[in-house]
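Input (structure):
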């Protein structure tokens, strides 16, 4: 915690006028001028004292938003608490004092009055220029009540981290249809039992099983109660493979000349590839795909496992947000479970069509290649407004593990 006083520009002008009144009083000896000088000096001292008292025993807590997207405004709230018992707080300005990276719009707010023992929520917004992990360090409270001559500043250290997702848009209609038609795993039978879609197998009766599931033909043949088990269909699966291993060989990987007609900012092909991957992930989750992400050359130790749900999507977007191209190596191999072969649609995103990417997947695996040097690459993603982007992120996917039906015990035989 750090406190300090500073004199504002109106305060400096006021001090000049007060000094002029003092000189006039000394030269003329007029009592009225001495009284005027005392009142003016007292007002300046009162301004410094009252602003200091207003910020005593103040506390601030950030209320962070769920989703922050690069270049889009995000709502952030500050809960300002006045812990004084009798003295209210007036005219408080709140802002972020130290941020570890440049923001297009720094959060700033204002609160006119906070009663003793009360709290107030100040809503403002933040705009981050680029993806990554944003570290918010200090919060600055400023009060110049009542006359604005002296600023009382209170710095509170409140370190917090905020993940800024890459820009997310909507897929081109033709590309979305291409991804949907190339997925042929929607009719697979899941290994999760207790579904209602496909026949799974037979087993012996157990206490508590539903008598409606009894397979009477097998029961009559074996003489033992046999239960018919069902399974649910597995959702279509998509594996997004982001291949940035050869970005050092591309002069436009990090820097791209600004072009007003291009939907991508001047951030290079790497950022374009990451934004395309993020858009694909969000599209797949909205379309009820089970999705996984693998980044070639990142040193992953665990194989990609397709998952569904908002938590899985947030985890994948967090990986893209914190991706550092400098840590990507030229290694080609990554853990690849055999059970995914032929069951999932693979989408490989690379910087160029000539980049060697065939070594990432087994030879018999079919995949869709999205190379950013393709002539139609600029039309693949259409970026939306801030509200539409938040709507995409708030879309919920169905629960990948449906709740098993309630098992009714068999009725007692009379």
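Output (sequence):
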């Amino acid at each position: 915690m750090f406190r300090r006083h500073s004199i504002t520009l109106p305060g400096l002008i006021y001090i000049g006028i007060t000094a002029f009144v003092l000189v006039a009083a000394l030269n003329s000896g007029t009592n009225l001028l001495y009284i005027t000088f005392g009142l003016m000096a007292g007002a300046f001292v009162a301004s410094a004292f009252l602003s200091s008292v207003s910020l005593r025993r103040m506390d601030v807590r950030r209320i962070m938003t769920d989703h922050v997207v690069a270049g889009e405004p995000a709502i952030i709230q500050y809960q300002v608490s006045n812990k004084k018992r009798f003295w209210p707080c007036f005219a408080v300005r709140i802002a972020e004092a130290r941020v570890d990276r440049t923001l297009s719009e720094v959060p700033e707010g204002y609160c006119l009055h906070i009663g003793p023992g009360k709290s107030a929520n100040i809503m403002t917004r933040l705009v981050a220029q680029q993806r990554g992990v944003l570290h918010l360090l200090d919060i600055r409270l400023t009060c110049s009540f009542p006359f604005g001559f002296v600023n009382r500043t209170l710095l509170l250290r409140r370190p917090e981290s905020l993940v800024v997702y890459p820009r997310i848009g909507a897929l081109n209609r033709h590309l979305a249809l291409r991804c949907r038609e190339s997925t042929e795993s929607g009719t697979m039978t899941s290994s999760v039992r207790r579904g209602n879609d496909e026949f799974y197998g037979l087993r012996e009766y157990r206490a508590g099983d539903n008598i409606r599931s009894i397979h009477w033909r097998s029961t009559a043949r074996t003489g033992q109660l046999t239960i018919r088990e069902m399974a649910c269909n597995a959702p279509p699966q998509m594996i997004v493979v982001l291949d940035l291993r050869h970005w050092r060989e591309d002069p436009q990987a990090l820097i791209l000349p600004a072009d007003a007609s291009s939907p991508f900012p001047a951030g290079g092909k790497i950022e374009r590839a990451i934004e395309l991957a993020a858009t694909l992930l969000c599209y797949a989750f909205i379309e009820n795909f089970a999705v996984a992400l693998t980044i070639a050359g990142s040193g992953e130790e665990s194989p990609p496992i397709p998952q569904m749900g908002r938590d899985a999507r947030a985890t994948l977007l967090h990986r893209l947000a914190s991706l550092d191209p400098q840590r990507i190596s030229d290694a080609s191999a990554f853990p690849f479970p055999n059970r995914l072969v032929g069951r999932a649609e693979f989408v490989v995103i690379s910087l160029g069509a000539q980049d060697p990417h065939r070594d990432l997947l087994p030879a018999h695996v079919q995949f869709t290649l999205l190379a950013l040097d393709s002539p139609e690459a600029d039309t693949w993603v259409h970026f939306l407004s801030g509200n539409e982007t938040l709507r995409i992120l708030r879309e919920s996917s169905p629960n990948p593990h449906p709740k098993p039906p309630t098992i009714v015990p068999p009725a007692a035989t009379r």
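Notes: Residues 185-195, 256-266, 396-414 have pLDDT under 50 and may be disordered. The chain has four domains: 2-40, 58-165, 169-177+235-394, 191-233.
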